[in-house]
Design goal:
The complex is a heterodimer of chains A (309) and B (363). Chain A is 72% helix and 0% strand. By secondary structure, chain A is an all-alpha fold. Chain A has a single domain (2-295), classed as Orthogonal Bundle (ABC transporter involved in vitamin B12 uptake, BtuC), CATH 1.10.3470. The longest helix of chain A is centred in the N-terminal third of the chain and has 30 residues, at 2-31. The radius of gyration of chain A is 20 Å and the shape is globular. Chain B is of the alpha/beta class. Chain B folds into two domains: 22-130 and 261-288, Rossmann fold, CATH 3.40.50; 132-259 and 323-358, 3-Layer(aba) Sandwich (Rossmann fold). Chain B is 41% helix and 19% strand. In chain B, β6 (151-155), α6 (160-179) and β7 (188-194) form a beta-alpha-beta unit. The chains are: A mainly alpha (309), B alpha/beta (363). Chain A binds chain B through residues 7, 11, 14-15, 105, 109, 112-113, 115, 206, 210-213, 215-216, 218-220, 222, 251-252, 255-256, 258-261, and chain B through 35-36, 38-40, 152, 191, 193-194, 200-207, 209-211, 213-214, 225, 227, 230-231, 248-249, 358-359.
Chain lengths: 309, 363
């Protein structure tokens, strides 16, 4: 029993990391008032860049760095249209996803089926010696551990620092932020870049650690799950961690039950739950203005900022 | 009058030459492919068939193919090839079936071949498939001889083709275990978990890891990417590949069960060139080399290899007794009674699992 729990818990963590990175990134972007639906495309670009750069430079960390950089720049394409040109952000974001899929399919051809370096799991001494908890949390590949730091740091940054306050101000009321001297446009660009970079990190996790190698459209819709998770988590990094783990757990658990021969009738229902909850949150925040504030949706999300003369 | 007659004759000759000119040209062959030629699964297997076809008939034919032909654009792609004067068109995945039916009606002089479906017409559309279950039986037999008695299978879609494969694998596995005299649980030698997809890299990995983590001693890949086999290797558990040889991606693969479409492509194109093509329902096994086994892993002993090859030789002779009774279902009921054999129709509509499989077909 104990080993089964540890096992499912471990698999839950390894299978939800890519989504978690992308979700945290998208939270930053959306908190600044920019809605970027291009997460799936950015993750794919990141996954391909990570694999290609690793293969080229024979260094995993160089691969990760390139993935974050290139995906960040890729996100700036959306930033350029959404922030400077003030186009419809939904359309621009969807275009970014389609572009990312096509581009990675096209450029990735020579890399399909290639075998290169990969992140191996290892025990993080001495933490992995802690019974149960250590086994669950500290026996992963090197790309998992940064997430343990990223989530609390993102939370503290967002709610406890001046920069976090500025970020939230830009997303809530850009005009007011502008009046007090916060540079709205550069801020939005910066956080769009960060969102892209973290989505790229998620992609790199897939192509270097979780399912090593490049496969066309290997993210398999995880970018969309990340976008749903941002709403699910109500734009809060800590809840995003919970949400990502819940998504991962439900998937891991239903496969585990199948493998163990346990019959769980509601496996379909289980898989629907997080999406149902996401829809509920969406309904709540669109129906009631007051609830929107409570939930934490940035008031200026998706609304291009135009400086008043 | 005479001049007019000669002129007329020359005209007729000229038109005749014009009409017959394409016949003198190379035969044009087209393929509609499901995914990319390097997808390491279904489409790569077909592409290897195309390469083989070019190798064999290269100077007499002209070959084209289109990748990523999905249900939505299949009709357009097939129609495009037919209009462009292609003589024989292969539609290589199940979803192309209805579009092929529709287009074949409009181009009665073009030959259409559809892979993995069940529809044909009396004029210009046939279908073809390969008896992968024969290779699965041999792979299972090999695993049994090697003493793997707790296999975990990453199954794809719960429809007859994979079900038949799981059953054949399990029948082979039990035969191998019995011959090797290995004590095993006759109710549970092969545990299946459904991916409910033909390819899904992340969940294939997740499933293979789950099965390896639950102590299964061999992972059987059935999906169209080598991910589950590769994930098994990373967990230190051997695997068996599917579709193409997965040895490069999964070094621990003991063997792979492979499609061998090329032999059929050469055969069909040759018949079409000779004007001898007839619509048919083709289902080839080892007797026609429609499927094959990949190379054995170094760890497979000579003794095991000899036994597997002997079974394979029988199939190559056309003797296929894999689904010969008595065969029980999971409840212990004799579904195929002693002395009888499942017909092709039974096999094509198979919706039950043999004794020894743990797991069930989802509703």
């Amino acid at each position: 029993m104990e080993s089964a729990v540890i096992f499912v818990a471990k698999i839950t963590i390894t299978s939800s990391m890519a989504v978690l990175y992308a979700t945290i990134g998208e939270i930053f972007t959306e908190r600044s008032g920019v809605l970027n639906l291009g997460v799936e495309g950015m993750m794919l670009v990141g996954a391909l860049t990570a694999f290609a750069a690793t293969d080229c430079f024979q260094s995993l960390w160089v691969g990760v760095l390139f993935a974050m950089l290139i995906s960040g720049i890729f996100a700036l394409i959306h930033g350029f249209f959404a922030i400077t040109f003030r186009v419809n952000q939904v359309v621009s974001g969807l275009a970014l996803t389609l572009f990312g899929i096509g581009l990675s399919d096209f450029l990735g051809r020579p890399f399909i089926g290639k075998v290169s370096l990969k992140f191996e799991p290892f025990g993080l001494f001495p933490l992995d010696k802690i019974p149960v908890v250590g086994q669950i949390l500290f026996t992963h590949s090197a790309l998992v551990y940064p997430a343990y730091l990223l989530v609390p740091l993102a939370y503290v940054f967002l709610y406890k620092t001046r920069y976090g306050l500025q970020l939230r101000a830009v997303g809530e009321n850009p005009s007011a932020a502008d009046t007090v001297g916060i540079p709205v446009f550069p801020m939005r660009y910066l956080y769009t870049f960060i969102g892209g970079a973290l989505a790229g990190l998620g992609g790199a996790y897939l192509s270097l650690a979780y399912t090593p190698g490049w496969k066309e459209q290997m993210t398999g819709g995880q970018g969309w799950i990340a976008i749903a998770l941002v709403i699910f988590s109500m734009w809060d990094p800590l809840k995003a961690l919970g949400g990502a783990l819940l998504f991962g757990f439900i998937n891991a658990f239903q496969f585990y039950c199948q493998a163990a021969g346990l019959t769980l009738i509601p496996s379909y229902v289980l898989r629907m739950l997080p999406y149902l909850f996401t829809i509920v949150v969406l309904i709540v925040i669109t129906r009631w203005e007051a609830a929107k504030k409570r939930v934490g949706a940035p008031a200026a999300l998706g609304i291009p900022f135009e400086r008043e003369q | 009058m005479r001049k007019k007659f000669i002129f007329l004759m020359l005209m007729v000759l000229g038109i005749g030459l014009l009409i017959s000119a394409p016949a003198l040209a190379k035969t044009k062959v087209a393929f509609a492919l499901l995914w990319t030629i390097d997808d390491m699964g279904w489409t790569t297997a077909h592409y290897r068939g195309i390469e083989y076809l070019k190798e064999q008939l290269g100077d007499q034919i002209e070959v084209s193919y289109t990748e990523k032909v999905l249900a939505a654009n299949a009709e357009q792609v097939l129609r495009g090839y037919a209009k462009a004067g292609y003589n024989i068109i292969f539609a290589t995945t199940f979803e192309h079936m209805d579009p092929t039916m529709i287009v074949s009606r409009d181009f009665p002089n073009v030959v259409f071949e559809h892979c993995s479906g069940y529809k044909k017409n009396d004029k210009n559309m046939g279908n073809y498939f390969m008896r992968m279950y024969q290779a699965e039986y041999l792979a299972g037999y090999m695993a049994g001889l090697m003493g793997y008695k707790n296999v975990g299978t990453v199954a794809t879609q719960p429809i007859p083709e994979p079900i038949r494969g799981i059953n054949a694998f399990t029948i082979g596995l039990k035969k191998g275990l019995s011959e090797a005299g290995i004590d095993h649980d006759p109710q549970k030698v092969n545990t299946i978990v459904w991916l409910k997809s033909w390819r899904d890299a992340t969940n294939e990995t997740l499933l293979a890891e789950t099965l390896a983590g639950r102590g299964h001693d061999l992972i059987r890949q059935m999906a169209d990417t080598p991910e589950s086999a590769a994930a098994a290797c990373r967990k230190g558990v051997p695997s068996i590949g599917y579709g193409i040889d997965v040895g490069t991606q999964a070094q621990c693969a003991l063997i792979s069960t492979e499609w061998n479409w090329g032999v059929y492509y050469v055969d069909a194109v040759k018949r079409s060139m000779a004007g001898a093509w007839q619509p048919a329902e083709v289902w080839w096994g080892f007797e026609k080399q429609g499927v094959k086994l990949g190379p054995f892993h170094a760890s497979v002993t000579d003794e095991v290899r000899q036994k597997v090859l002997a079974e394979k030789a029988k199939l190559e002779m056309g003797v296929d007794n894999i689904f010969a009774g008595p065969i029980n279902n999971q409840l212990g009921k004799e579904v195929i009674v002693a002395g009888q054999k499942a017909s092709d129709q039974d096999l094509l509509t198979m919706r039950w699992l043999v004794e020894g499989v743990a797991g069930k077909i989802p509703d």
